[in-house]
Amino acid sequence: MEPALSFQLFTGEATGPRLGKVTTAHGSFDTPVFMPVGTAGTVKSLNPDQVAQTGARIVLGNTFHLLLKPGPDIVAAHGGLHGFMQWPHSILTDSGGFQVFSLSGLRKLDQDGVTFRSPLDGHLERLTPERAVEIQQALGSDIAMVLDVCPPAEAPRDEVRRAMDLSTDWAGRCLVHHRRPDQALFAIIQGGADGQLRAEHAQSLTGSPFDGFAIGGLSVGESTGDMYAAIEATTPHMPVAKPRYLMGVGTPQNLVEAVARGVDMFDCVLPTRTARNGRLYTSLGVLNISNARHAHSLEPLDAACDCYTCQHFSRAYLRHLFMARELLSYQLNSIHNLRYFQNLMAAVREAIATGGFEDFRRAFHSALQPEEE
Amino acid sequence: MEPALSFQLFTGEATGPRLGKVTTAHGSFDTPVFMPVGTAGTVKSLNPDQVAQTGARIVLGNTFHLLLKPGPDIVAAHGGLHGFMQWPHSILTDSGGFQVFSLSGLRKLDQDGVTFRSPLDGHLERLTPERAVEIQQALGSDIAMVLDVCPPAEAPRDEVRRAMDLSTDWAGRCLVHHRRPDQALFAIIQGGADGQLRAEHAQSLTGSPFDGFAIGGLSVGESTGDMYAAIEATTPHMPVAKPRYLMGVGTPQNLVEAVARGVDMFDCVLPTRTARNGRLYTSLGVLNISNARHAHSLEPLDAACDCYTCQHFSRAYLRHLFMARELLSYQLNSIHNLRYFQNLMAAVREAIATGGFEDFRRAFHSALQPEEE
């Protein structure tokens, strides 16, 4: 039988930049890769053709949101999330854990799972490792994630350790319960900003036959330096031959720096969320389209960009749409920001392939200017 | 020199269904035609490629909205509205009159023009026939409209007559002032619901060398019967060889009935506005996607429809997007409703071409079911 996921590593070791290719039941994608987030069965403001046109070949779906609305049964009736949202390429689903532990309302953790109130209608929901696996099997994603316990960034060391140990236990329960042969399962390494805990948790998980390993619990309020240190403490203890996924990260700078430390996969709402706020990524840094200096500009957003938005529209038009709160603004801005992230990762891969990653990294950082007010 | 607009009439007379073709500086479109409304330089929620994919080859732009934001100078700097919004096909602009006379705030009419406050920032603006022409020349539309005076539906007969007489005077001033050789100019026939006034106004305008004639001042609150009667009173007095445009109308039923009475061109916000409210046109009538009966439906919106939305997505998915207020909902719904209107007009043209319009009209009306709650 075919494995649910195969990973070819062309260049790279346990640390440092790596070049590879992941193949799932719905096709292949090159790594390092950026996965746009399709929270509730849609990458916000774009149809699936438009998402694919940005170059994306894998998107992320949020189990938490799909569980609450429309519910896994409706998605499963479409043959899964691929059929529901009409995305023919790969899909990764998270387990819902991160969102549950981010809820400000009622949430009760026990050894067996976590109970919480739906922020939509207040009904009680419960996630256990087994249920998180079952929901993701119903969603039919190509890559599922184990349910983990995510402590807040400011949690004391003993709370981080307890979360870590419970996460190890839950990861094992997910692995035992997982049945779908066409779906891969990734474990999640916790440990907060503590390098020793990170190393320890990596070692306790990587002995089990997961298809890949994620670094979780980062980008939750810690400093950038702490985040990079936590990655550096983790990747040396991860298997070389399996993909590594840094969850919920991040800015273009974060991506380049995490690639430098041995990460293969990323997801983040940043490109689409900032697009809807009129903040647009360019080769020179972040541009704020509401700025009055763009009101008469016939220039494209980024002369270096090949996206539909930059190939057609002026900054003046894009500013007009944004100021008038026209729905097309969110579509065109999202196309651009997602294409920027895809182009960035393609440039990263090209630099690794040609042995020029360090030059690329230096040139990339030095080109960026402070974000426009 | 080429005329700004040419009209070939293949089938038809002064009244009854007509089949034709309009050619402007930006291409041709078959008539009867439906023009999507791109109020502020965008057909709401769709990019220009998507609008063209619905079959549209002419859209409408609103001078009133573009005058206030972003202003005609910015549009003109892009070579006009075609460059600004990147729409390569034909554009018709209205004169702004209808919106000015619909304002609830300050508005002062005199013989020379009309002064009003911007609803955006309260600054005073003024439209005269000459200024309306100049703005539309700056916008560079293929078809410009004269500035007219639009009385409310409940206006007494002498007020309707005064508005009519002033509109005649202003139409003449527009014609004299108009200079752009690549832009057509249409006059607007007023007269309220009074058949005698309609006939009189048609006769007083159609002697002048306008490129086409519009029926204005309808769909402003009068009954459907009054609207049809007003059209019937007007079209016999309009030149056979020039296109007729019924402004701001209407429902699919209105379009079919107006075609039956000799109208060639239509515009309306209905398909895009109702799309954003989850009301979707089908061959069986209007469907409300928020209805719970669609929650588990794997069916397309309309099995008879060839649009991107119907070819890809289930009602359950479309309902999910709408209930979750996902931006993609407005895009997919708008694609469908606009395609429905384009397909309807294509079916109307086909029926006229094959001599089967009366059969088509009967079958069309009898297939429609009451609108879903």
Portion in strands of chain A: 15-25%
* CA-based gyration radius of chain A: 20 Å
The multimeric state of the shown protein is homodimer
Question: Reading side by side through the largest sheet of chain A, how are the strands ordered?
Answer: 4-14-13-12-11-10
What's the total number of strands of chain A?
16
- The average pLDDT value of chain A, as a whole number, equals 96
User: Looking at this structure, what is the CATH superfamily of the largest domain in chain A?
Assistant: Queuine tRNA-ribosyltransferase-like
In short:
The structure is a homodimer of 373-residue chains. The first copy, chain A, is α/β, with parallel strands linked by helices and 373 residues long.
Structural commentary:
The structure is a homodimer of 373-residue chains. With 373 residues, the first copy, chain A, is α/β, with parallel strands linked by helices. Chain A folds into two domains: 263 residues, Queuine tRNA-ribosyltransferase-like (TIM Barrel), CATH 3.20.20.105; 93 residues, no CATH class. Chain A has 15 helices and 16 strands. In chain A, the strands form five sheets. A six-stranded parallel β-sheet of chain A has the order 4-14-13-12-11-10. A three-stranded antiparallel β-sheet of chain A has the order 1-2-3. The first copy, chain A, has a three-stranded antiparallel β-sheet with strand order 7-8-9. In chain A, a hairpin with a 7-residue loop joins β1 and β2. Chain A is globular, with a radius of gyration of 20 Å. The mean pLDDT of chain A is 96. The interface between A and B is large, with 37 and 37 residues.
